[in-house]
């Protein structure tokens, strides 16, 4: 059986991995003023787009996920010919409309695919499952990586589906944002009041960096540390402890809103790599996608993994 895997472009994964595993990306369109770019996970295009005046206004960005019709057309135009079963793994529905759009499109796709496949001489069934990752950024990448592992191992679609749905509730993404004022302006633009003006101002003045946690579609602070480097080290050290305690998948997924070489110089990074190597846990690293960058700002660090319930600290 030919199994396909789809993710939206807010899913942070290395470009060579996406290409090697033939993962289809559903683009998110980002508009800042009159400038518009479809996020297809191109680092050079992203950085060019966020340069100059456009970059200074990034917190004003409007993001638009693939519409129901666009998802429908993608499947009927190509994917139902290339695959027999497709997993579409999306950013949490609490933060993006792509999940609901994909679900709505799936209803018409499953009603219409037979005639399209039959016209191409293929009368075998086609199935589609939309999975809410219940996470963001690098957190979306964790179940995508696991889906590729299970596909390569020859696992059946029902087994893959059950495992991905279990992982969705047990995937954790932790983020250190570099600029609280930017984050406050952005979430205010989105109608979220979780970072007040006072806390943003004091945090910036004192160089306090929060550590944010996303799990089961909910995001909130779990710690605060003075200085970005110190906060990054605390996050890397904590991740190493989780790796040593045992993960649910052999994967740690990192993304960074800047040069990966810069991320690799952060304190605690090398120690985390050593712990992962000792435990045979594979580390994935990618440049944060455009939709992530406009939401949290340049220089953000995100670490994601699947693990049993735990507390940060």
TrEMBL record:
One GO molecular-function entry: lipid binding
Pfam families in the record: DegV (PF02645)
Presence of keyword Methyltransferase: no
Keywords: Lipid-binding
Gene3D superfamilies: 3.30.1180.10, 3.40.50.10170
Sections of the chain in a coiled coil: none
Domain of life: Bacteria
Protein name: DegV family protein
Organism of provenance: Thermomonas brevis
């Amino acid at each position: 059986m030919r199994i396909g895997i789809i993710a939206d472009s807010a899913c942070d994964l290395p470009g060579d991995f996406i290409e090697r595993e033939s993962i289809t990306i559903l683009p998110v369109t980002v508009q800042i003023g009159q400038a518009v770019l479809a996020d297809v996970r191109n680092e050079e295009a992203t950085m060019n787009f966020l340069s100059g005046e456009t970059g200074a206004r990034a917190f004003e960005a409007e993001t638009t996920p693939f519409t129901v019709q666009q998802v429908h057309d993608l499947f009927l135009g190509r994917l139902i010919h290339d695959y027999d079963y497709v997993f579409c793994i999306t950013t949490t529905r609490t933060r993006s409309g792509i999940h609901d759009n994909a679900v709505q499109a799936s209803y018409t796709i499953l009603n219409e695919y037979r005639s399209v496949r039959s016209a191409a001489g293929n009368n075998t069934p086609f199935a589609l499952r939309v999975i809410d990752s219940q996470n963001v950024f690098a957190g979306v990448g964790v179940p995508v990586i696991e889906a590729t592992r299970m596909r390569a191992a020859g696992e059946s679609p029902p087994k893959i589906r059950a495992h991905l749905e279990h992982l969705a509730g047990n995937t954790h993404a932790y983020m250190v944002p570099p600029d609280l004022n930017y984050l406050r302006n952005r979430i205010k633009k989105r109608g979220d009041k979780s970072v007040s003006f006072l806390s943003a101002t004091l945090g910036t003045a004192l160089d306090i960096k929060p550590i944010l946690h996303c799990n089961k579609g909910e995001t909130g602070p779990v710690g605060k540390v003075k200085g970005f480097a110190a906060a990054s080290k605390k996050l890397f050290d904590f991740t190493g402890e989780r790796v040593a305690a045992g993960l649910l998948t052999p994967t740690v997924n990192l993304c960074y809103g800047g040069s990966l070489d810069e991320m690799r110089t952060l304190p605690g990074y090398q120690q985390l790599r050593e712990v992962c190597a000792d435990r045979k846990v594979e580390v994935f690293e990618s440049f944060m996608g455009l939709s992530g960058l406009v939401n949290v700002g340049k220089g953000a660090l995100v670490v994601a993994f699947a693990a049993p319930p735990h507390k940060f600290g």
